[in-house]
Design brief:
three-stranded parallel beta sheet, single chain, binds glutamic acid, 448 residues, Glutamyl-tRNA Synthetase, domain 2, Rossmann fold, three-stranded antiparallel beta sheet, alpha/beta, 19 helices
């Protein structure tokens, strides 16, 4: 059996860390067993789905390196869903209902008041042909429910282990709304069958859907046709709060464009949180694939912590070769050569922050000089000609001998004069990049 999995986002918003974690687990599993990964665009909601969001999610996945072997849109497949609808009607498993939202709401309230679970009472199954004709003559349009078996559905979840749902405790799910539009439940099953999906890996919020869908799989595809299921525990914030409300601000687009995170920082974090592996950075998707196993995935929620993401990002940046980052530096006006990269790299959390340090070299820098006499003495001692990696220690050694200063009193005023800042990359590396001429002028107070 060739493993085939799918990621099925709706193009009604940007991808965020929550849904990318689901995509990632699908990709890691597929690649770890030589399987295929399908991208399905769940765009049956024609009003809320947009091409721009679809393009956006394809761009985000591509940027992350989560590329797919195959892709299609649900909006191209309405004829298949219509055929499935007819099949279920013929099997007596899909029935028309005419209650309005208000009527259903009232029923649920009464059930709750009686201490009963708010499960749909199947009143519509009692309607005669005439009742239905009458309702339709009044202008009512039916919505359609799938008739659950009432039995116990069992499956061995790839993450949660042996799982079951008593379908008697669940309402018959609505598959088609009164306006004729499909909820996601039926199209998803039709597509999973047609695409020969072998494993469905998705969020824990779909556990109840799985029970209904397993019955729909069996109705349309025969016994045993349901794929294996794996339900991933949800993401929570670092302080344990639900992340669902904040997910909008954790879009991949924002993490990439505003914050400047590296794809592998995001992938590493999302692959490791909520697993028994330590949370650490990996420098390729392949490395994450190699380490993947469902056995490592915890049943507890996974904590997403922005500070941890930044820590992983910094670690990646600290290991980047100049050749790999050169073009990106140039694009932000921060390509000041390999020696520059070596000087600033250990101080960076994000590549884009190199721009700030490039400005220390290129200027203009506004020097901070508290003691002009000291600055002048130091300037006079600057070595002549090209400065190199040893110049800083030779120079500050000479300044020390001449002035008797040491420690902070020796070094701090020099950094402040040369960079206008209290902290930053190693001065020994910065000084040759600034050069003797600019250094002298800055020590004299000139903004250059
Ligand atoms: N479009 C559905 C969602 O995003 C897909 C769920 C599934 O993976 O079956 O919730």
């Amino acid at each position: 059996m060739t493993v085939k999995v799918r990621f099925a986002p709706s193009p009604t918003g940007r991808l965020h860390v929550g849904n990318v974690r689901t995509a990632l687990m699908n990709v890691l599993f597929a690649r770890s067993v030589g399987g295929k990964f399908l991208l399905r665009i769940d765009d049956t909601d024609l009003e809320r789905s947009t091409k721009a969001y679809e393009d956006g999610l394809r761009d985000d996945l591509t940027w992350l390196g989560l590329t797919w072997d195959e892709s299609f849109n649900q909006s191209e497949r309405f004829d298949r869903y219509e055929a499935a609808k007819q099949t279920l009607i013929e099997q007596g498993l899909l029935y028309p209902c005419y209650e309005t939202e208000e009527e259903l709401d009232r029923k649920r309230k009464i059930q709750r008041a009686q201490g009963k679970p708010p499960v749909y009472d199947r009143a519509a199954l009692q309607l005669t042909e005439e009742d239905r004709a009458k309702l339709e003559a009044e202008g009512r349009k039916p919505h359609w429910r799938f008739k659950l078996s009432g039995g116990r559905i069992e499956w061995t979840d790839l993450i949660r282990g042996p799982s079951h749902i008593e379908t008697s405790s669940v309402s018959d799910p609505i598959l088609i709304r009164a306006d004729g539009s499909y909820l996601y439940t039926l199209p998803s099953v039709v597509d999973d069958l047609d695409a020969k999906i072998t494993h469905i890996i998705r969020g824990e919020d779909h556990v109840t859907n799985s029970a209904s869908q397993i019955e729909i799989f069996e109705a349309l595809g025969g016994a045993g046709s349901a794929p294996q299921m794996g339900h991933q525990p949800l993401l929570i914030g670092a302080d344990g709060e639900k992340l669902s409300k904040r997910l909008g601000s954790l879009s991949i687009e924002g993490l990439r464009e505003e914050d400047g995170y590296e794809p592998l920082a995001i992938l590493s974090l999302l692959a490791k949180i909520g697993t028994s592996d330590p949370v650490d950075v990996r420098n390729s998707l392949d490395a994450l694939v190699e380490e993947f196993s469902f056995d490592k995935v915890s049943r507890n929620p996974a904590r997403f912590d922005g500070a941890e993401l930044t820590r992983l990002n910094a670690k990646l940046v600290h290991e980047m070769d100049y050749a790999d980052v050169k073009d990106r530096l140039a694009a932000i006006n921060a390509d000041a050569g390999e020696a520059f990269w070596a000087a600033v790299q250990p101080n960076l959390e994000f590549v884009k922050d190199a721009a700030e340090f490039a400005a220390l070299i290129n200027g203009p820098v506004t020097p901070i000089i508290e003691d002009p006499d000291y600055a002048a003495e130091a300037a006079a001692l600057l070595p002549e000609g090209e400065l190199d990696a040893d110049s800083w220690s030779a120079w500050t050694g000479a300044v020390k001998d001449k002035t008797g200063r040491k420690g902070g009193a020796l070094f701090k005023p020099l950094r402040l004069a040369l960079t206008g800042q209290t902290r930053g990359p190693e001065m020994a590396m910065l000084l040759p990049l600034i050069g003797a001429d600019k250094a002298r002028r800055r020590l004299s107070g000139e903004s250059v």
